[in-house]
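CopG family transcriptional regulator: structure tokens wanted.
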Amino acid sequence: MTAPTQTLTVTIDSATAAKLQASVDAGTYPTVTAAARAALETWYDPVQAKEEIRRLWREGVESGPGRPAEDVFRDLMARYTDIP
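Answer:
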């Protein structure tokens, strides 16, 4: 069952409208409405965002020791340099 919908009229600047249209033109979304809906669905309130950041931070700390970024990038370059 889908959630009930409500039609709203929202005014946005031309740069934002262009980004929405570009996502449709690229085939990412079927319509500008779908693109706008996806953008709004990812909008967090500040409390939820902080909780999510804390959860992700804990998850990272609990996953074990880190590695220097230089080592990670060197390994990635070695792995993916020869891919056509």
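The mean pLDDT is 91. The radius of gyration is 20 Å.

Cheers.
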